Amino acid sequence: MTTNDVIDRLIDVGQDLPAYGEAVYAWVADNVWLLAVVPVAAAPFVLAVAVSRRRFARGRLKERQAFEVLPTTGFDPVLEDVLRFAKQLAQAQRSVSRWAFTPVRGTAVRVRLLSQGGLLTMRVEGPARAAAILRHQGYSQCEMRAVGAAAIDADRPEIRLGADLDGNSHTALAA
């Protein structure tokens, strides 16, 4: 097949485009009822999948583990150390199964920078199944300390929606 053959074929297809458009328009006009029924029929299935994923995520989020990385006074990492630590975090994300019902927010690895009493710490939080990878020391001049579940929940910000003038909130969401 030569270049001229390809160009001729494209010209032929281009000339037939209006006929294809008319055929599609005729099919849609004849089957408009089908376009309304399919989304209505699929809605319960989509809703069931969304609810099951959300419920499955609750268990995954409760099983999370966190580790604090406490730097020493002489902590000054080189670029290679930072890239190695980032690679370890990426492996922790990959080590957790992500099949159809495993939600992304349940397998995510979070890195938080916290300042408590002037001391800057970095907290790495992830799924319990990836704890071995998260626990592995990433920096040579840092101490890795496990954080309890109560401390993880206490550091999460709380968002209050619909607060009254008295300060009573109707709904509170944990981020």
Characterization of the model:
The protein has 175 residues and is an alpha+beta fold. The chain has 2 domains: 3-57, no CATH class; 63-159, Alpha-Beta Plaits. The protein has 6 helices and 6 strands. It has helices at 3-30, 32-62, 79-95, 104-107, 131-135, 149-155, and strands at 65-71, 110-116, 119-126, 142-147, 158-163, 169-174. Strands 2-3-1-4 form a 4-stranded antiparallel β-sheet. A two-stranded antiparallel ribbon has the order 5-6. The protein is elongated, with a radius of gyration of 27 Å. The termini are far apart. Mean pLDDT is 77; it is low at 169-175.
Brief summary:
The protein is of the alpha+beta class and about 180 residues long. The protein has six helices and six strands.
Attribute tags:
53% helix, 4-stranded antiparallel beta sheet, Alpha-Beta Plaits, two-stranded antiparallel ribbon, alpha+beta, 175 residues
User: Within the largest sheet, what's the order of strands?
Assistant: 2-3-1-4
Architecture per CATH nomenclature, i.e. the level-2 architecture of the largest domain: 2-Layer Sandwich
The ordered string of helix (H) and strand (E) elements is HHEHHEEHEHEE
State the shape: elongated
| CATH topology type of the largest domain | Alpha-Beta Plaits
Let me know the average pLDDT: 77
The profile of the biggest β sheet is: 4 strands, antiparallel
Low-confidence stretches: 169-175
- Total number of helices: 6
Cα-atom Rg, whole angstroms? 27 Å
Helix content: 40-55%
Look at the structure and give the CATH class of the largest domain. Answer: Alpha Beta
Strand content: 15-25%
End-to-end separation? 60 Å
